[in-house]
Amino acid sequence: MNVSGTSPHPYLILNKPYDVLSSFTDADGRPTLAKYIQKPSVYSAGRLDRDSEGLLFLTSDAYFLHRITDPRYKLWKEYWAQVERHPSEQALTRLRQGVYVKGKMTQPAKVDLLSPEPELWPRTVPIRFRKNIPTIWLRIQIQEGLNRQIRRMTAAVGHPTLRLVRVGIGPLMLGNLQPGEWRDLTRQEVNALRSACV
């Protein structure tokens, strides 16, 4: 798509499946985005770990590729995280205020309990289930993109993440896209994203 002929760049979102790299090639032959998207010269604006799922924004537009990944532009990214055990209010407060991740204090985050738990597609490899350890879902919004940040944050307060799904980048939302599905953005979505990145 070129947004009704006004731009030479494609803009699209993908629901990245579990166990897929956020790249188009891999020397070790692991699954990549090339299985799902056959558009020339697009790149993901920010990455998701191989074991994370959800929203990827892809484009050839350097403006967005830079602004979405640079924390100076303070674009919120929303994640749903399934964690072990029910966090105390103290643990939630620590996540909101910032925790040390690899020697660096994370920026303040927005963290809430997700209730009822979200209705998501089954994961291709089910999470480990332990009868005596309950799980709960958190909505976590951050403006950074440190390596494995959400997983390291929840582990730091004693609640390891078992499943992680990104559902939002700024005004863009995953919606009902299923794993491996993608769609072009509308002109309105591109304009809203541009406004959010200023």
Helical element count? Answer: 4
Structural class, from helix and strand content?
alpha+beta
- How would you describe the shape? globular
| Residues in helices, as a percent range | 10-25%
Radius of gyration: 17 Å
Unreliable parts: 1-5
What is the count of distinct domains?
2
From the coordinates shown, what is the CATH architecture of the largest domain?
A: 2-Layer Sandwich
Estimate the strand proportion: 25-35%
Write the element-wise H/E pattern from the N-terminal end onward. EEEHEHEEEEHEEEH
Assigned CATH class of the largest domain: Alpha Beta
Largest sheet: 9 strands, mixed
CATH superfamily of the largest domain: Alpha-L RNA-binding motif
Structure description:
The strands form 2 sheets. Strands 1, 2, 3, 4, 7, 8, 9, 10 and 11 form a 9-stranded mixed β-sheet that branches. This protein has 198 residues and is α+β, with helices and mostly antiparallel strands. The radius of gyration is 17 Å and the shape is globular. β9 (161-169) and β10 form a beta hairpin. The chain is 18% helix and 27% strand.
Topology:
Elements: E1 11-16, E2 43-44, E3 53-59, H1 62-69, E4 77-84, H2 89-97, E5 100-101, E6 104-105, E7 110-113, E8 135-142, H3 149-156, E9 161-169, E10 172-173, E11 182-184, H4 187-196
Parallel strand pairs: 3-9
Antiparallel strand pairs: 1-3, 1-11, 2-3, 4-8, 4-9, 5-6, 7-8, 9-10
